[in-house]
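As noted in the main text, all predictions were made from sequence alone. Below is one such record, for NitT/TauT family transport system substrate-binding protein.
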Amino acid sequence: MAAVGLLSAVPGCGLLSGPKQAPHGAEGATVRLGVVPIIDVAPVYIAMRAGYFRDEGVDVRIRTVQGGAAGIPAMVSGDLDVTFGNWVSFFTAQAKGTADLKLVADGYRGKPGMFLVLALPDGPVRSAKDLAGRKIAVNTRGNVTELAVRAAMRAQGVDVSAVQFTEMPFLDMQSALQRKDVDAALVVEPFLTSAIRQAGAVPVLDTMTGAATELPIGGYATTAKFAAGNPATLDAFRRALGKAQRDAADRHRVEEVIADYAKVDSSVAAQVHLGSYPTGIDANRLRNVVSIMRDNGMLDRDLDPSTMVL
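Prediction:
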């Protein structure tokens, strides 16, 4: 009895006092987070390295997914709590009723030069007009990469109806181009700079121009069910991520982490083209994504993203 009394009196001892409460009242203190190993998610790794999640009392456990389209069913089945994904996949799932999603945080916005369609100089594609009827690699079908290619081709007056979109991980696109398995590929950083330097790939279409300049590319979402049961946990997650999104304005912080999680040489990391890492969700920008989706036949009804914001 004396021993029990001693244990229960020790500050921080959870042997007899029930579950340890996380700071700020976070309910679960664990978030299983789906990420794609691309430059867009650099702030997640900045936050991990800086201890921002730990400081907020959230244990983030990272799991790799191929794209937002893959992360959504993993959340629905309960294998993930939050996933990074592109807005197109999130809006498509919401419109079709395959998932009831809440948008947690913005992640990445485009800039010219960082979302390019690449081809090899000895192949059949030399310019945007040559993409008509060709086989183009995207990481997943029906997502922001396919939308970007469709919208940019239309803006250039190129017929997109006969294009063959082929799914593959970004990591495999350089080899697929070299093997002639595809004619072109929508490649993102850090794989973009690697393909240009190592394979001599050349840009034939910049998709982040015109109406798509500063286009929101991706962010973080959860299910309405998880959001309802874990509001404090998600608030803590969002605070930690927001700090890292601000840190990502310092290019050096981004270079440090992508050389690690994306397995790229530091010399490549120093040359990648960066988009921007917003610290808040702009519903008007997301409405522009919906508009472009509808214009390109990738959404058959209107959707107001503001109703999905957490």
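Residues 8 and 16 are 6 Å apart (CA to CA). Residues 17-109+215-307 form a domain with the D-Maltodextrin-Binding Protein; domain 2 fold (CATH 3.40.190.10). These features were considered when defining construct boundaries for the mutagenesis experiments described in Section 2.9.
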